[in-house]
Amino acid sequence: MGESIVESEMSFISNNIFRIEKSPVYLSVRHSLRTVDFLRCKGENLMFIEAKTTFPNPQNQNSKVKFRDEISKICEKFVHSLNLFWAIRAGCFGTCNELPECFASCYGVKLVFVLVVRDHRWEWCEGIRAPIAEGIPKYIMRTWKPELFVINHETAIRRGIAACIPS
Predict the structure, then answer these.
(1) How many independent structural domains does the chain possess?
(2) Parallel, antiparallel, or unpaired for β 45-52 and 4-7?
(3) Domain of 133?
(4) pLDDT tens-digit map of 99-132
């Protein structure tokens, strides 16, 4: 399997990743932006991956406001990360030597936004996915045409995004 990284108590496959959240460019502008945890090139996909240990339940009256706030933050992270990545790629922050080599030829790729919620039950994922899809600005959805997935850790393992943490 190779090396892995840990985000939100989950192990993710670390080949072809850019840890945008830990990048010097992001650290220099973090006061005005939010980012996902990391980006990963996987086949023809450029994936923007955000990992969470939990997510508020919209059915719980006490957490409805928290749910809406969390949806808003996730949407911002996807949009800000998309803009920051392409700004880095375009050289707006100087040379893009910060990007791993696999990101040098990011042309003709399919954009994929992925939220992985660690122990979330599969049937709860659509209840998060739909509000995120509605919360991402329409111009982003129409221009970039990203796919959007909300999955749990088990599904992320099956899709080759995450890895099992050895017991």
Answers:
(1) 1
(2) unpaired
(3) 4-163
(4) 777 666 666 789 999 999 988 777 777 889 999 9
Phi/psi at 160 (nearest 5 deg)?
Answer: 75, 25
User: Alpha-carbon distance 161 to 155, whole Å?
Assistant: 9
Please give the structure tokens belonging to residue 115: 């939220």
Token pair for residue 74? 């996730």
Q: Is the pTM of this model over 0.85?
A: yes
As given in the structure block, the two tokens for residue 151 are 């999955």
Helix count (H) and strand count (E) of the chain? 5, 8
- The residues that bridge with 131 in the sheet, in sequence order, are none
List, in sequence order, the alpha helices (H) in 8-164: 24-29, 64-89, 125-135, 138-144, 153-158
pLDDT in tens, 48-58: 999 999 888 77
